[in-house]
Design brief:
This protein has 173 residues and is mostly helical. Helices cover 80% and strands 0% of the residues. It is built from seven helices and no strands. It has helices spanning 8-15, 17-63, 65-74, 83-103, 107-128, 136-150, 157-172. The longest helix is centred in the N-terminal third of the chain and has 47 residues, at 17-63.
């Protein structure tokens, strides 16, 4: 019976356990530093990147409401919704959800309808009219999905409310 050769990592560990342990410690320190100091501003930057894209679109919609209604009747034909309702929902979503993103309040919930809008723009409207198909929408979808999965981060009202809630719950126990 022959034994299988040890993996390269196992061989390296056997030869240099102290060096490898130091490298792993260094990796953990760098990851900890990134988690503490780099990730919170990154999460904020993602929220601040996505918010104005949708907010400006909402302002444009309410800035010329008759033109918006015409576009939803003729150009932005969203399935299952009457054009007037689709226009109202789009404008309302684009004006409210970005404010929540900037604050980091209900971040996951705010990112959901924006992700749905990006999906509709890319895959429903884009399928009907190639002019709406834009690779940038995939970038939006990726960032919005990240917000849904991770939340607003430490520089958000969500985080502050969670900490406040935990403190109050700790006082009751």
């Amino acid at each position: 019976m022959t034994s299988s050769p040890a993996s390269p990592l196992a061989q390296l560990w056997a030869q240099h356990p102290v060096r490898l342990a130091r490298l792993l410690d260094l990796r953990d320190q760098v990851a900890g530093w990134l988690d503490q100091y780099a990730v919170p501003p990154f999460d904020l930057a993602v929220r601040l990147t996505m918010a104005p894209i949708f907010f400006r679109s909402g302002l444009q919609k309410i800035g010329d409401w008759p033109a918006t209604l015409f576009l939803f009747q003729e150009e932005y034909r969203v399935p299952l919704l009457p054009p007037n309702l689709a226009a109202l929902l789009a404008a309302t979503t684009e004006l409210t959800m970005p404010v929540l993103l900037v604050l980091g309040l209900a971040t996951r919930l705010a990112a959901l309808p924006l992700l749905a809008m990006a999906l509709v723009i890319q895959f429903v409207l884009g399928a009907a009219n190639p002019a709406f198909s834009n690779p940038q929408h995939y970038f939006w979808m990726l960032l919005l999905t990240g917000l849904i999965l991770r939340g607003g981060g430490r520089l958000s009202v969500d985080h502050w409310l969670l900490r406040l809630s935990r403190r109050r719950m700790g006082d009751r126990q």
